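Mods, move this if it's the wrong board.
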Amino acid sequence: MNTKNKYTILLISAIFALLSFGCEDMEPDSPPVKSIDESTILTISDLREICPSGWRYTFVGDSIVFGVVTMDETSGNIYKKLYIQDDEQAVELRLSASSRVLEGDSLRVNLKGTTLGYFNKQFQVDGLDVTSVVVRGSGYHMEPVTVTIPELLDASFPTEYQSKLVKIENVQFKSTELSKTYANAIDQKDESRTLEDSEGNVIIVRTSGYASFAGTTVAQGSGSIIAIATQYGATRQLVIRKLSEVELDGERF
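Not the wrong board. Structure tokens:
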């Protein structure tokens, strides 16, 4: 082999080696996986135990709670809020800003810096930064709990049903409400409408003036309704997620 060919082969080998080294360097690094300390994981029931009625509690370190979103902000009926539920309990999350989290999303929520407390007896996590909310998956379906109006009016409501997705059957809006819309869409004011059962028990349906259906006339018949059960002082309230879940199209009783 002459000297010229020898140098040519060496040069080509060097180029291939350099390219191989460069390709290896271009491989992206995998981000480090941060494991969760299991001692920081809480259930929604744990949150209520940490903060009994009338108390306030602020998290200064990492504490994690998991839950599935049962109501998001899409309809406009709630703003800078989410409702989540686990296998036993539910809770209202008050956000620092509006989020893109959707109903059916499975969340991991870091509670550091948030405050547990009660706003007019409604238990909530307040001051939650949206960057502390991680969507782990989507498309989860949470079945509503079928209840009666008397059950929602019972003293056990705060721990049994507050913030949960519920379904009430055999109800209708009172006749005095039938000419009204769900809320005041013109002035964008929240309003209440009264729902009744055949025994005369009543409960409030509370709707934001910013809801997409605020200007819609209330359903005229009887049937069932799915909503989030909430509380304002001594008043128990239902918050509608979407009109398709207000199935009051049967004959009035």
